[in-house]
Amino acid sequence: MLEVRTILGWRKSFFIELCNDLELKYGLERSRVTIIEKVGIFVYALAKGASNRDLGERFQRSGETISRSFHEVLEIITGRSNGFKGFARDMIKPTDHTFQSIPSHILHDERYMPYFKDCIGCIDGTHIVACVPEADQMRYRGRKTLTSFNVMATCDFDMCFTFISAGWEGSAHDSRIFLHAINTPSLNFPKLPEGKYYLVDKGYPDRRGYLVPYFKTRYHQNQFENVGPNNAKEVFNRAHSSLRSCIERSFGVLKKRWKILNAMPQFSVQTQIDIVIAAFALHNYIRKNAQDDDLFNIVAQHPDYVPLDELPDVFDDDINHGSYRETYLEMKNIRNNIASQLWMMH
């Protein structure tokens, strides 16, 4: 397992801690294959996108043993055998369900405080490669040519995911996934306290609790490199983009670490969805328990870095928002007030 830890850049103590948690807290069972080896097989598969054959050669185990070990760990992480009450559910949730305190990322940054003091996180979608039968491929093709899952997530400003909706086809629109998530009680979407809100891009409905940027206005950080903001709307969009980039960077770290998300093996669609959930859960576990993680440290040292494939399509005017575009004046007033304050300070 030394090689697995080296590839992932993990300390021995952290890897052992993960193994112990999966065994003692969540019930991963010992067998002829040790807990350490089972977890090693699983995280190596996610990190390298390795096939069953490659894993067999790497760990000197039969294909059957590799497959059984992989699926045992996957089942424990997703909690599939326990009503989805397990590791993933414990990892992917808000640290503070009341959202009463101002996030430190905002509190200690004059670019955002006090303007965004009521913001509790960000929402966005990302496409993760899916391996599906030819007959289903049209449904799974999104904006890009590859078949994919469209995964919606919320994250806090510590780069931890607080909710995910995985499994939607790549052709599903962000707003459809969003509305299903917030209107389906069984999914446990984090409830918004009065006056609090998420930052979202223009692919989401403009409604109470979700603050969108100004449309048809410069947005991305690189659009302001040569010419700064010229008005209140541009000042707001630049601040909105900078603060919301937290979720784009989080997606970037997730995909950089877990190569399997960029080249999904030929598992069943349900198993692929479970792998996505496991990757998000392990992302949070690492963030919360390995503060010296190399990938998170690199992103911390370059706060403006955003992976190119995670940039939102803020100038796509073909999106149909239905009746929401003009409905929630409350959020428009919040946006206009913040824009005015930022412009005065600018």
TrEMBL record:
Localization of this protein: Nucleus
Cofactor: a divalent metal cation
Domain DUF8040: 8-78
Keywords linked to the UniProt accession: Hydrolase, Metal-binding, Nuclease, Nucleus
InterPro entries per UniProt: DUF8040, HARBI1-like, HARBI1_dom
Domain DDE Tnp4: 123-284
A GO MF label: metal ion binding
Pfam name, any one: DUF8040
One Gene Ontology term, aspect cellular component: nucleus
Keyword S-adenosyl-L-methionine: no
Family: Belongs to the HARBI1 family.
Protein name per Swiss-Prot or TrEMBL: DDE Tnp4 domain-containing protein
